[in-house]
Design brief:
This protein is 60% helix and 5% strand. It is mainly alpha-helical. It has one domain. Helix 2 packs parallel to helix 5, helix 4 crosses helix 5 and helix 4 packs antiparallel against helix 7.
Protein backbone atom coordinates (compact mmCIF):
# COMPACT_ATOMS: atom_id res chain seq x y z
CA UNK A 1 0.00 0.00 0.00
CA UNK A 2 2.80 2.41 0.93
CA UNK A 3 4.51 1.77 -2.39
CA UNK A 4 1.27 2.46 -4.29
CA UNK A 5 0.75 5.74 -2.41
CA UNK A 6 4.31 6.86 -3.13
CA UNK A 7 4.09 5.82 -6.79
CA UNK A 8 0.78 7.44 -7.64
CA UNK A 9 -0.35 9.93 -4.98
CA UNK A 10 3.09 11.32 -4.15
CA UNK A 11 4.51 11.07 -7.66
CA UNK A 12 6.69 14.00 -8.76
CA UNK A 13 4.56 14.47 -11.87
CA UNK A 14 1.55 16.65 -11.19
CA UNK A 15 -0.69 14.96 -13.76
CA UNK A 16 -0.12 11.50 -12.22
CA UNK A 17 -0.98 12.78 -8.73
CA UNK A 18 -4.10 14.53 -9.98
CA UNK A 19 -5.38 11.58 -12.04
CA UNK A 20 -4.76 9.25 -9.08
CA UNK A 21 -6.72 11.52 -6.75
CA UNK A 22 -9.46 12.00 -9.35
CA UNK A 23 -9.81 8.25 -9.90
CA UNK A 24 -10.25 7.55 -6.20
CA UNK A 25 -12.54 10.57 -5.91
CA UNK A 26 -14.85 9.42 -8.72
CA UNK A 27 -15.11 5.90 -7.27
CA UNK A 28 -15.73 7.22 -3.74
CA UNK A 29 -18.27 9.80 -4.91
CA UNK A 30 -20.22 7.34 -7.04
CA UNK A 31 -20.31 4.69 -4.30
CA UNK A 32 -21.40 7.05 -1.51
CA UNK A 33 -23.92 8.82 -3.78
CA UNK A 34 -25.48 5.45 -4.69
CA UNK A 35 -25.65 4.27 -1.05
CA UNK A 36 -27.02 7.56 0.28
CA UNK A 37 -29.65 7.80 -2.47
CA UNK A 38 -31.01 4.32 -1.85
CA UNK A 39 -30.44 3.85 1.87
CA UNK A 40 -30.59 7.25 3.61
CA UNK A 41 -33.71 9.38 4.18
CA UNK A 42 -34.48 12.56 2.28
CA UNK A 43 -32.83 15.61 3.88
CA UNK A 44 -30.57 13.44 6.04
CA UNK A 45 -27.95 16.19 6.59
CA UNK A 46 -30.08 19.26 5.97
CA UNK A 47 -29.19 22.08 8.35
CA UNK A 48 -26.45 20.05 10.05
CA UNK A 49 -23.41 21.35 8.14
CA UNK A 50 -21.20 24.24 9.19
CA UNK A 51 -21.67 25.77 5.73
CA UNK A 52 -25.36 26.47 6.40
CA UNK A 53 -24.38 28.60 9.41
CA UNK A 54 -21.75 30.50 7.43
CA UNK A 55 -23.50 31.19 4.12
CA UNK A 56 -27.03 31.13 5.48
CA UNK A 57 -30.14 29.34 4.32
CA UNK A 58 -31.57 31.93 1.93
CA UNK A 59 -30.46 33.24 -1.44
CA UNK A 60 -28.92 36.72 -1.73
CA UNK A 61 -30.72 39.62 -3.40
CA UNK A 62 -28.47 39.69 -6.47
CA UNK A 63 -26.55 37.18 -8.55
CA UNK A 64 -23.23 38.90 -7.81
CA UNK A 65 -23.86 38.85 -4.05
CA UNK A 66 -24.77 35.17 -4.19
CA UNK A 67 -21.63 34.39 -6.17
CA UNK A 68 -19.51 36.38 -3.73
CA UNK A 69 -20.97 34.45 -0.80
CA UNK A 70 -20.36 31.06 -2.39
CA UNK A 71 -16.93 31.99 -3.75
CA UNK A 72 -15.85 33.41 -0.39
CA UNK A 73 -16.84 30.22 1.41
CA UNK A 74 -15.09 28.03 -1.16
CA UNK A 75 -11.91 30.11 -1.11
CA UNK A 76 -11.91 29.77 2.66
CA UNK A 77 -12.10 26.01 2.15
CA UNK A 78 -9.14 26.24 -0.26
CA UNK A 79 -7.08 28.06 2.39
CA UNK A 80 -8.01 25.42 4.96
CA UNK A 81 -7.01 22.66 2.54
CA UNK A 82 -3.61 24.26 1.92
CA UNK A 83 -3.05 24.69 5.67
CA UNK A 84 -3.98 21.08 6.40
CA UNK A 85 -1.63 19.98 3.62
CA UNK A 86 1.21 21.41 5.72
CA UNK A 87 0.89 18.25 7.82
CA UNK A 88 2.30 14.98 6.49
CA UNK A 89 0.36 11.92 7.63
CA UNK A 90 2.65 9.10 8.84
CA UNK A 91 5.25 9.77 6.14
CA UNK A 92 2.69 8.72 3.54
CA UNK A 93 0.69 11.67 2.21
CA UNK A 94 -0.39 15.19 3.19
CA UNK A 95 -3.39 15.39 5.50
CA UNK A 96 -5.12 17.58 2.93
CA UNK A 97 -5.82 14.47 0.89
CA UNK A 98 -8.03 13.21 3.72
CA UNK A 99 -9.73 16.61 3.89
CA UNK A 100 -10.57 16.74 0.20
CA UNK A 101 -11.93 13.17 0.16
CA UNK A 102 -13.98 13.94 3.28
CA UNK A 103 -15.44 17.00 1.56
CA UNK A 104 -16.21 14.92 -1.52
CA UNK A 105 -17.94 12.27 0.61
CA UNK A 106 -20.11 14.89 2.29
CA UNK A 107 -21.12 16.35 -1.05
CA UNK A 108 -22.12 12.93 -2.35
CA UNK A 109 -24.33 12.40 0.71
CA UNK A 110 -25.88 15.84 0.21
CA UNK A 111 -26.55 14.96 -3.40
CA UNK A 112 -28.00 11.53 -2.62
CA UNK A 113 -30.27 12.79 0.16
CA UNK A 114 -31.08 16.27 -1.25
CA UNK A 115 -29.81 17.85 1.97
CA UNK A 116 -28.98 21.24 0.42
CA UNK A 117 -30.37 24.25 2.27
CA UNK A 118 -31.93 25.37 -1.01
CA UNK A 119 -33.20 21.96 -2.04
CA UNK A 120 -33.59 20.48 -5.51
CA UNK A 121 -37.19 19.70 -6.58
CA UNK A 122 -36.38 16.04 -5.90
CA UNK A 123 -33.46 13.81 -5.11
CA UNK A 124 -31.14 13.13 -8.02
CA UNK A 125 -30.50 9.45 -8.74
CA UNK A 126 -26.93 8.55 -9.71
CA UNK A 127 -26.53 9.53 -13.36
CA UNK A 128 -24.46 11.67 -15.71
CA UNK A 129 -26.94 14.51 -15.06
CA UNK A 130 -24.64 15.43 -12.16
CA UNK A 131 -22.38 17.22 -14.66
CA UNK A 132 -25.08 19.87 -15.12
CA UNK A 133 -24.46 20.92 -11.52
CA UNK A 134 -21.53 22.89 -10.11
CA UNK A 135 -20.52 20.46 -7.36
CA UNK A 136 -18.39 18.04 -9.42
CA UNK A 137 -16.34 20.94 -10.80
CA UNK A 138 -15.81 22.35 -7.32
CA UNK A 139 -14.54 18.93 -6.23
CA UNK A 140 -12.18 18.79 -9.22
CA UNK A 141 -10.89 22.22 -8.25
CA UNK A 142 -10.17 21.06 -4.70
CA UNK A 143 -8.41 17.95 -6.02
CA UNK A 144 -6.23 20.16 -8.20
CA UNK A 145 -5.29 22.32 -5.22
CA UNK A 146 -4.50 19.24 -3.11
CA UNK A 147 -2.32 17.76 -5.86
CA UNK A 148 -0.55 21.09 -6.43
CA UNK A 149 0.45 21.56 -2.78
CA UNK A 150 1.30 17.94 -1.96
CA UNK A 151 4.96 18.55 -1.04
CA UNK A 152 4.58 21.65 1.12
CA UNK A 153 4.26 19.84 4.46
CA UNK A 154 6.13 21.44 7.38
CA UNK A 155 5.31 18.86 10.04
CA UNK A 156 5.17 15.07 9.95
CA UNK A 157 2.49 13.55 12.14
CA UNK A 158 3.81 10.10 13.04
CA UNK A 159 4.74 7.90 15.98
CA UNK A 160 7.78 10.11 16.43
CA UNK A 161 6.55 13.40 15.00
CA UNK A 162 9.09 15.84 13.60
CA UNK A 163 9.43 19.12 11.75
CA UNK A 164 10.26 19.10 8.05
CA UNK A 165 12.98 21.65 7.42
CA UNK A 166 13.60 21.11 3.70
CA UNK A 167 10.49 22.17 1.78
CA UNK A 168 10.78 22.65 -2.01
CA UNK A 169 9.36 25.64 -3.82
CA UNK A 170 6.31 25.13 -5.97
CA UNK A 171 7.21 24.19 -9.54
CA UNK A 172 5.61 25.88 -12.54
CA UNK A 173 3.43 22.77 -12.91
CA UNK A 174 2.20 23.17 -9.36
CA UNK A 175 1.52 26.90 -9.77
CA UNK A 176 -0.51 26.19 -12.92
CA UNK A 177 -2.43 23.41 -11.16
CA UNK A 178 -3.11 25.65 -8.17
CA UNK A 179 -4.27 28.56 -10.33
CA UNK A 180 -6.40 26.31 -12.53
CA UNK A 181 -7.98 24.70 -9.48
CA UNK A 182 -8.92 28.06 -7.95
CA UNK A 183 -10.27 29.30 -11.30
CA UNK A 184 -12.50 26.22 -11.64
CA UNK A 185 -13.78 26.72 -8.08
CA UNK A 186 -14.66 30.36 -8.81
CA UNK A 187 -16.39 29.47 -12.09
CA UNK A 188 -18.29 26.65 -10.40
CA UNK A 189 -19.43 29.12 -7.74
CA UNK A 190 -20.79 31.36 -10.51
CA UNK A 191 -22.66 28.40 -12.01
CA UNK A 192 -24.07 27.52 -8.59
CA UNK A 193 -25.15 31.13 -7.98
CA UNK A 194 -27.01 31.16 -11.31
CA UNK A 195 -28.79 27.90 -10.44
CA UNK A 196 -29.82 29.23 -7.04
CA UNK A 197 -31.09 32.57 -8.34
CA UNK A 198 -33.06 31.03 -11.21
CA UNK A 199 -34.72 28.55 -8.84
CA UNK A 200 -36.22 31.35 -6.71
Amino acid sequence: MKRIIKKYFMNEKFIIRFISLLTVGVILFTLVWFLSYYFLPDGFLKGKAVSSRIVGTEASNTLLAEWGKIAGYNLGAVCLLVLVNLILWFDLFPLGYVTVFGNLTLYSIYMGTNSFMISMPERMAPSLAIFARSGPYEMIGFLLVAAATYNQSRFALAKNSYRITSVPRLSWEQWIGLGFGIAIILLAAWREAIMIMTSQ
